[in-house]
Amino acid sequence: MLDEDDHRYLGQRLDLFHIQEEAPGMVFWHARGFTLYRLLEEAVRRQMMRDSYREVRTPLILRQAIWKASGHWDNFSSNMFRLHEEDHAAAIKPVNCPGHMQIVARMAPSYRDLPLRIGELGMVHRDEPSGTLHGLFRLRQFTQDDGHIFCVEEQVEAEVVRFASALRDFYAGFGFRDMVVGFSTRPAERSGSDAVWDRAEAALSGAARSAGLEYRLQPGEGAFYGPKLEFVLRDRLGRSWQCGTIQLDLVLPERFDITYVDASGARRRPAILHRALFGSVERFLGILLEHYRGALPLWLSPEQLVVVPVTDAQRAYAEEVLLDFQRKGVRAILDAGDDTLSRKIAIAHAAAIPLVAVIGRREAERRSVTIREREGGQQRELLLEEAVVEVAQRCAPLA
User: Fold this and answer.
1) How far apart are the C-alpha atoms of 399 and 383, rounded to whole Å?
2) Is residue 397 reached through a cis peptide bond, with omega within 30 degrees of 0 on the bond before it?
3) Three-class SS state of 335
4) What is the largest CA-CA distance in the chain?
5) For the chain, which domains are there?
6) pTM above 0.85, yes or no
7) Which of 1, 115, 139, 253 is the most exposed place for a label (fewest CB within 10 A)?
8) Segments in the chain forming alpha helices (H)
């Protein structure tokens, strides 16, 4: 029996998603849940636009040569779904990084192009043991909000400062203001020399201090190609969730022969910063569902408002009201069924819809609506034009 605040229970109760044994660790998104999934994607895309990222898309399957070059074939093999494509060994991608390397290598950037920021909402697959799978928190198929910054080493500090500053505001839009930072250093199994790791760890820790980040040291927890800063959020129960990350990589540019042309015409290796905001879109959605107990903020709700005519006599006006809200970008639906008004309101509350627009005889005569709030049950009558403007403003994205 699942707890009523468990995201898996909420996924069923709110008709968001399900997972079944024929596709372990993979999500069947229902219409309401896929709306939430898309809203999180859109939030990432808005942030990418603000931060001047170029969005790309890379293949799902890559041959062994690329995974050997990245180090994943040797260091991450047990978590990869391998297959044979004609006479070539290949794998379904567990990360997006090597695909981004292929794009930048073709671009052959100059120092004038740096920092070069590219991002991808890329679906990845990892062969996680069945016993570790856990709803949206641990999946085999999920979407990473990956970004990579190609820059000269002297630009690392400014890029980390920029990322950390934007991240605080981004998380605040979702209602998370308590953030802890961890600094993960070189693991026992890694690529690159000690000298390269010394340089990378010094640069990233210095950048963190410049960003005003107080971090706890996490020895041996870095990626096999570089150290990383991990951003941990706390939910309403005080639980910690590692979400965002930024990692400094001086190894993969060498392994993939990535270069840029400097001011003198010489070819040099860039530094690479791997960054993510959510880490996993699905996991972040699970965190949000449990943090808010399913009653998501207005801007994040699958349906933000339901228009409810009291009787069939108000149906025509209710349909007009619905269109007015929808034209202003409000995710609104109509409930013109045969249930009583109180029953319709109860159904809306059970579905965690934040606002109900009640249309009775008086509202139809006055061309108004009565807006009823999910939280507290307060209600106000507003002229239709006023209601549409106010509700549209309240429904605008916060992240």
Assistant:
1) 29
2) no
3) coil
4) 78
5) 32-291 (3.30.930.10), 298-394 (3.40.50.800)
6) yes
7) 1
8) 7-13, 31-50, 64-70, 72-75, 97-107, 156-172, 194-210, 252-255, 281-291, 315-327, 341-350, 361-366, 384-394
Residue 329 token pair: 């970008």
Bridge partners for 181 per DSSP? 215, 231
Give just the sign of the alpha carbon dihedral 2, 3, 4, 10. Answer: negative
- Measured between alpha carbons, how far is residue 98 from residues 69, 108, 153, 274 in Å? 8, 16, 20, 11
Host H or E run for residue 182: strand 179-184
CA-CA distance, 204 to 247, in Å (whole number)? 8
User: pLDDT (tens digit, 0 to 9) for every residue of the chain, 399 residues total?
Assistant: 789 999 999 999 999 999 999 999 999 999 999 999 999 999 999 999 999 999 999 999 999 999 999 989 987 888 999 998 888 999 999 999 999 999 999 999 999 999 999 999 999 999 999 999 999 999 999 999 999 999 999 999 999 999 999 999 999 999 999 899 999 999 998 888 999 999 999 999 999 999 999 999 999 999 888 999 999 999 988 999 999 999 999 999 999 999 999 999 999 999 999 999 999 999 999 999 999 999 999 999 999 999 999 999 999 999 999 999 999 999 999 999 999 999 999 999 999 999 999 999 999 999 999 999 998 889 999 999 999 999 999 999 998
Handedness of CA 243, 40, 281, 106 (dihedral sign): negative
Q: Which alpha helices (H) appear in 211-280, and where do they start and end?
A: 252-255
288 backbone φψ class: left, alpha, beta (φ>0; ψ -120 to 50): alpha
Backbone angles phi, psi at 387, to 5 degrees: -65, -45
99: tokens are 């695909």
Active-site annotation, residues: 97, 126, 144, 146, 148, 228, 274
Q: How far is CA 56 from the centre of its chain?
A: 16
Strand pairing class (215-218; 88-92): unpaired
Q: Which CB contacts under 8 angstroms, 24+ apart, belong to 384-391?
A: 384/321, 384/324, 387/357, 388/324, 388/325, 388/328, 388/330, 389/328, 391/304, 391/305, 391/325, 391/328, 391/330, 391/355
CB neighbours of 110 closer than 8 A, spacing ≥ 6? 260, 261, 262
